[in-house]
Structure formats: C-alpha cells, structure tokens
Write a structure and sequence with these properties.
Structural class: alpha+beta
Distance between the termini: 6 Å
Largest sheet: 3 strands, antiparallel
Number of strands: 3
Oligomer: single chain
Number of helices: 1
Order of helices and strands: EHEE
Helix content: 10-25%
Radius of gyration: 12 Å
C-alpha cells in the first residue's frame, strides 16, 4: 500500500513534520520525495513524500 503526504515547513512551530515522523514510526518507509515549491526567504517549503507499507 502507498500513501502520499505533502510535507510543509515554515519554521520550527509551523510545519507538519510530526505527521511524517508518526507515519515512519508506524512502519511506513519513504519511497520517494520531490520538492514542490519554496526557496524564497521566509516562504513555506513544500515536499511531496510517497510512503509505502507492506
């Protein structure tokens, strides 16, 4: 089974890394990761992460 999650990071308090870390703790593995946007100073960075679990 595969799952896609869009990870966003603005700063240490405004991000959803806890969601990604929870999935990894549950046994999901990263299959691929692709930057979606970001790069401007102070802008939120987005990344598409594809996860897989048997």
């Amino acid at each position: 089974m595969q799952k896609a999650i869009v990870v966003h990071y603005y700063n240490d308090k405004k991000n959803n890394l806890i969601d990604l870390n929870q999935l990894l703790q549950e046994g999901w593995k990263v299959v691929s990761q692709s930057a979606m946007s970001g790069g401007e100073m102070g802008a939120t960075v987005y990344s598409l992460v594809i996860l897989e679990k048997n």
